[in-house]
Design a protein that fits this description.
Chain B: InterPro entries: VWF_A (IPR002035), vWFA_dom_sf (IPR036465). The complex is a heterodimer of chains A (315) and B (250). In chain A, 45% of the residues lie in helices and 19% in strands. Chain A has 315 residues and is of the alpha+beta class. In chain A, strands 1-2-3-4-6-5 form a six-stranded antiparallel sheet. In chain A, helix 4 (123-140) packs antiparallel against helix 5 and helix 4 (123-140) packs antiparallel against helix 8. Chain A is globular. Chain B has one domain (9-246): Rossmann fold. In chain B, strand 1 (9-17), helix 1 and strand 2 (39-47) form a beta-alpha-beta unit. The longest helix of chain B is centred in the middle third of the chain and has 29 residues, at 79-107. Chain B starts with 8 loop residues before the first strand and ends in a 5-residue tail after the last helix. The chains are: A alpha+beta (315), B alpha/beta (250).
Amino acid sequence: MRMNSAKGDLDFELYPGLAFRGKWNRKPYKLIRKLGAGVTGYVYLAEGETGSVALKIGTEPMSITAEANVLKQFSKVQGKPLGPCLFDVDDFLSANSVLPFYAMEYIEGENFVDFLRGKGPEWLPVLALQLLSALSALHQQGWVFGDLKPENVIVTRRSAEVRLLDVGGTTRVGRAIKEYTEYYDRGYWEQGTRKAEPTYDLFAAAMMVVDCAYPRQVKKERGNTASQLKKLVYQAPLLKPYREIVYKALMGGYGSAEAMKNDFLASVKQTEERSRVKRKQQRKARKQKGAPIDLILVMSFVLILFVLYLLIQSF
Amino acid sequence: MEGKRMNGTLRQILLMTDGHSNYGEDPVAIARLAQEYDVTVNVIGITDENRENEKGLQEVEAIALAGGGVSEIVFARQLAKTVQMVTRKAMTQTLHGVVNQELKQILGQNDEMEDLPPEKRGQVMEVVDDLGEKVLLEVLVLIDTSASMTNKLPMVQEALLDLSISLNSRSGDTKFSLYSFPGKRNPIERLLDWTPKLQSLTATFTKLSTAGMTPTGPALQAALQVFEERRGKRRLEDDENEQRQGRFGF
């Protein structure tokens, strides 16, 4: 595939410290370090006119242009930003080639699953609800994210806000999804087509929630994939409060992100209710037992004071 | 990319092989010829885990380059995703070529998409995307069934079912046909005539003969013939206004 040689071009042309101006808009950029590599090119952290930006730079103007198109649409979505803001679309003229690029907002954070693995179970619904809100807004605009996976969902470091990255798979509702990752693709799990519709994204979102409960991805087994998925969802203690919801999403049972979100909210409230009742019961139990711990604390405090008093007296 | 006006159908040959041709015409020449017929040739070279046959696959890229298509060398287990990607990429590439031709008509001989400012490029890309979604696509899958392919055929089958899922998710129609080579008496053997969906191919794959020869060139030639016959048939069937519709308009 010629892709490989193209990547080779990029490796040769790009390096930290490289400074250039865009061919069309003449804005200056200086590359700082590579942040990652996607299917269509590299993402670099760069210094722009007004501060840090993320620069997606590739070899194929077609795919870079298509992504910039989607990001432009994103910025038209009212209210909260769903993804990075788009600043500039241009070409970098090097000595040997023309490399198309776009500059976008640099979002610092951790990917969805990594973030959750280092945190308590109370974080799962918090992030899942945010993700579903973002998807809901996107779907209402007539887009399906497509390549939804942990790497493409970032949780911002400062405000624990969920943002979508890498719009290479984002597709208009009703068309065919072009880019996807097998593990999160319902076609791969034999649960439906690759037509861009809300249910497609919700399958992937549910798979991401399943991911949080397991240390690594499972292998697809031959045969009944639906029952394999069910087992995955129902065996994880972390997923217990939401397992019906997650499984329903995997089976394409939610027509909209909004519906899935509402069910999630309801189960969060239920869990809260249960833990409140539990706490009450615990408090009652403690009262009946009396409070030996408090008593011992007070007694020992008094004892220490007394010893100190004796010491002071003896000097 | 040969800038040919096209009449609303994309034709692709998807060749899957694990070795190089050792009989008959040079497949690179035939692939080049395919472009004259408005047929793109994509090649997927299947390699073993131990990379033993990598040398034999050097031909793969050459055939695809000559055939205006896309090539990729993969392990059998990664086949599904690759087949989908190669087919898509080739579609976009072909359509991109068509749109570039149209642009030349509008902007003058030396202008291509890359020469447009990014703003305008975005609009052109929307058009390419739109065509890729709606165009009629005919894919002739050509499978090398020489002896060494035997253990890879289950993965080939899985990959084709996956491709069928992807392409049938488009709004435009897709037609598949499936041929294996070498055939018993002819260069290629028909396993499946033109059909919109690749259902389970288990039955077809049991019929495969596994001989030692790999006549890739003659097989491609025969595949081109299949497209030609189909086109001839269609001309007879189509009424006049279909003919007048012709190529894409902007």
